[in-house]
Amino acid sequence: MTENELFKRINAIAQSCDYKIYVVGGFVRDKILGKPGKDIDFVVVGDAMKFATVLKKELKIKTLVQYPRFGTFMANYKGYSLEFVNAREESYDFNSRNPVTKQADLLTDLSRRDFTINTLAMDISEENFGAVIDVYNGREDIKKGIIRTPLEPGKTFSDDPLRMMRAIRFASRFKFEIEQDTFEAITKNAERLAIISVERIQDEFNKILMADVPSFGLRLLEECGLLKQFLPEAIVMKGVEQKKEFHHKDVFYHTLEVIDNLAKTSNKLELRLAGLFHDIAKPRTKRFVEATGWTFHGHEVVGERMARAILKRLKYSNEIIDYVKKLVRLHLRPMALISDEVTDSAMRRLLFLAGNEFDDLMILCRADITSKNPNRVKRYLGNYEYLLKKVVEVEERDRIRNFQPPVNGQEIMAIFNCKPGRLIGEVKKFVEEAILDGEVENDHDACIKFILDNKNRFE
Ligand code: CTP
Q1: How do strand 287-289 and strand 72-77 relate by DSSP bridges?
Q2: Going by CA atoms, what residue is nearest to atom 28 of ligand 1?
Q3: Are 451 and 458 in contact (CB under 8 A)?
Q4: What is the domain extent for residue 420?
Q5: Is the per-residue pLDDT at 101 higher than 70?
Q6: Residue in 118, 142, 170, 173 to alter for ligand 1 test, most ligand atoms within 8 A of Cβ
């Protein structure tokens, strides 16, 4: 079903209820940008909840998700994701985000939306099908690439402070500019983000991180003071100097470059988060040593702890937290392997520690090279290529990445004729270390023999 067929059908149903209905928001904006999506918002001038009942029956939709308190309902239909809402006016309590809504006409509804580019409505009635209602010059702002609020920006942001982050999200996504008054109002109201739930902040932040060029939004977040509200630890990286050899001078801007590099090779949010946190502890661990200059000893260990605490505070999932912790902890290892004589056993250990995240760790290491010296970049990348080749060799031989001890507890109990207890763990650890050191093959029979040969050590 084409969208026009869908609109005509929905309009006919609205007409049968004596309601007017319009397509609004992101769909109209994206259509003008030449990228109409499948998520479509409608405004019902009438009773949206009554309309829900009629629509469900007419379109034979099995389930609708309804929020009568907010006068809104959602439905999936023929590949489209539809959201309907009463034309409304919202008023807000200064300290909370829970709006009191009352029905209003279309124009009042549009005036209470976040940005001019989102205030467009499309008429889908028979008489005016396709006509765009554009009270706030939204089309012109789309053409010029400008994010601005339809009302006085202080009012729009005080109604819903999350909109300050949305401004930056839209600016990054479309590479638009935030109009000066709007940006100044964000700077002035940044602290109001405090009344927004962490879940909503995280959601917007993720979208900013997932832009093609994440640094665009991250810079803006920092400039207007929003980043400080939920991620003050990142601000501290600003101005922290480091060796210029393979890094950018300032840790904050180096971090942004790393995230942009990651965005070129991967679509994983968690990898971009790992990029964000890989040097987070540099400010805390910075010391000046006469012979070498600035050092950041242990920043990967402190960084792992900081990443955990921050991601927990921002309510990321345990899977994401574990992933980021691992990459932050290990991000220096591959480089260290290159500077040492690479032994098979060192490589085995890295593969064992990184497990399934090994490939992502290597992507992070490559992205971490932000030197402006092309020869140096070439040399570092070449080093990683060499390391990867060696890793493939070790891996083919040893199958170490998803390492599972080849000997189980039952077998160890049988060999030592003992009951479950500490000994089992000790023997397993002993075998594991021997495999990683290359003393015994990662193979069941070889390991049993190895335990038998070393049995007296445990007796
Ligand atoms: N809106 C708003 N203030 C918010 C959230 C939403 O004014 N805090 C309005 C905007 O008019 C927006 C519409 O509700 O266009 C739908 O919101 P949403 O689906 O979040 O945004 P879209 O503009 O559709 O963007 P996306 O393409 O990311 O879904």
Answers
A1: unpaired
A2: 26
A3: no
A4: 409-458
A5: no
A6: 118
